[in-house]
Amino acid sequence: MDMNPPPVEELRRVDAELARLDARRAELLARRAWLLGVLYAPAGRAAAPPFPGVAAPAETSPRGAQNVLLTLGGILLAVAALAFTLVSWGSMGIAGRSAVLLAVTSAALAAPAVLLRRGLGSTAEAVGALGLVLTVLDAYALHRVALPGTDGLGYTAAAAAVLAGVWGGYGGLLRGLRLPLPAAVVAAQLPLPLGALAAGGGPAVVAWAAVLTAAADVLVLGRPSRSEVRVTAGVSAGVLAAWALLTGAGLSLTDPWTGAPLLLGCAALCLYAAGAARPAASTLATVAGLALVAAVAGPARAALPAEWAVPVYVVCGLALAALWRPVRAGWIPEAVRGGFGLAGGVVAGLGVLWALPPVLAGLLGPADRSAGLWSGTHAAPVPADYPATAALVLLLGAVAAATAGGPWGRWGAVVLGWSLLMALPVALELPYAAGIAVRLVATAAALGLAVRPGGPAHDRPEPVPGPAPVPERPEGAWGASWTAVTAGPVVPVAPGALLAWTGSAAGTASAVSALLLALDVRAATFGVLGVLLALFTAVAVLGGGAVRETAAGAAVLAAAGLVGAGAAAAGLSGAAAGLALLIVPAATAALAVRVRSVAAEVTGVAVGALALALTVPRPAALALALALGGVIAAATALRADRRRAASWTAGALFLAAAWVRLAVWGVTVPEAYTLPVTVPALVVGLLRRRRDPAASSWAAYGPGLAATLVPSLAAVWSDPHWTRPLLLGTGALAVTLLGARFRLQAPLVLGGAALVLVAAHELAPYVVQLVGALPRWLPPAAAGLLLLAVGATYERRLREARALRGRLARMR
Length: 812
Hints:
Number of helices: 32
Shape: flat
Strand content: under 5%
Number of strands: 0
Distance between the termini: 117 Å
């Protein structure tokens, strides 16, 4: 029997063996090259591995894998112990239970000492954690077996104290373990609060227990210890102190005499902690300052009427912020000073926010009108029952800001002082006349800042090379926190310009409010408009920069309001009032010759547009208004810087006035409307060609000629008479001849086209009559002959067309 495989199978085996030998040979060659590199490599240079890229990098370190395994093992053991305690406990006697738990706990607590000596730190940590969990289970088992009748809260407090001591001593003995000491700190947070609850103490007692516990944590922070112990103590102290602060804040609203001592204790704790925790000293001082304000203001608020609550808090906050003065003696640290300043500023800022509704009511209340203009009915303030002490809060804020000094302090004093004036009519429920007077005083005072000596025209920031400097810290009650607020890079702002812009904006707002309120009475309207005109004119004359422009525009609006009010008082119609309003743009244009103000001119133009809109219902008055506007624009064109725009505006207004007047007269002839455009346009084109001979005739004469020829052609095709075609044809012939004479393309083309269309219009009836008289086969035959003739002479006609185009192109 032949045992040899088939040739195909044998060939496959041979190929596979050869491939294996080739792979082995390549591996050996690579190994040989690596060995040669090791032998002959320079000293200090490691050879590359023989098979780069073959071994995959490890996805975890041995230490990480060990920690994961130990953690999982500890968790499983803790779960097993918990299951044993809860499930299998009842199947054993008291002796067995105690023996098992004691043996397991003792073994778990003793094993880390041996493991640490052998250098197995991670294993010791895992077993030690298991031991801590077993001590908790021991405490639970002791309560279930030996002390089942004791109070749960009391027993938990006592057990937590014992466990804290045991864990602390255990961690002190085994310094290599990191978990027992933080666990002892966590357990130490429970005894006092739980004991207070077990003893039947109320919220204040429990909060005091939390404060004492947090104080112990702060003491731990002050001792040199491990970082994990300090972090645990700091977090625990923060949680307990926050709970106590919230409890104290709630009690200060319901039982101030109980909450005040608690808040003082929290404040003292925060101040002491500020010395132990330097990085958070400013934050802790801020919290302490807020607690001090609440502690002092709570009893004072309870002894006063309800409307005095916010002022009491504001006074206490400002008094706290004013503690910067004794700092110069050196007995208050810088961080504490900053925290106190920030806390006082926060309290004062919240008080100012509370006082804003009267300010908004005084500013926007007059806009809520329930009756018509000059009705004598005054709208009641929006928050009519708001406490009048809001004005006192604004006054305190303004005084504090002024005392602070510095540019930002002065700015705050200005804003709060203006807000006080706007709130007074609402807060004090002043009479109508007094309310207007106070608003006008606020307007005058605010605008006075815009024109004070050293305003924006004289108070400009100097360019600062390099990084922007930190602004000067104000020397006031909030100066302590200024350094922290302005620590980053800032862009220097001129204090004078800031005050000027603020004064201009505030003055404009209060002026609008005063005017809206004055619209209730006719005499008040005229009086307020007159005062505002005087104030804004003075600012426009004395001010500078953007403030001057804003005031100039407002003065023009006030003048327009006076004219409009006068027209309404005289009983004039809308069109007559529009004609009267043209006095304002006329006066603005006249004054612009000496006093240049873009805002005033733009506002005058807007008033002129309003005047034209009022005259639209009466076309005759509209024509007169357009003509007067053209006169004003023509007068403005005398100025070199306004000549171009004003000239075009004047021409457009005059043209519109002429058209409206023609429409009023019932003129329907289109040439009456187009010739007033064509003649000036051709004159302007002629002057342009004289000044610039290279200018195209289309740009110089095209618009003027088209303005008359196109509408006239449209009228010719609808006019049955012979007069218009004759006149238009004559004019078109004259234009064509002039274009040919002076070699001008636009007149030649436009005139010729108009002449051809007029001739076609005149010949059209005869052509129609002739076509109607001829046989029906004749027009198609004539068209065919024409096409044959054109086709036969196509090349010559094309040369003639090109020559004609060249001649036209040579014209201008």
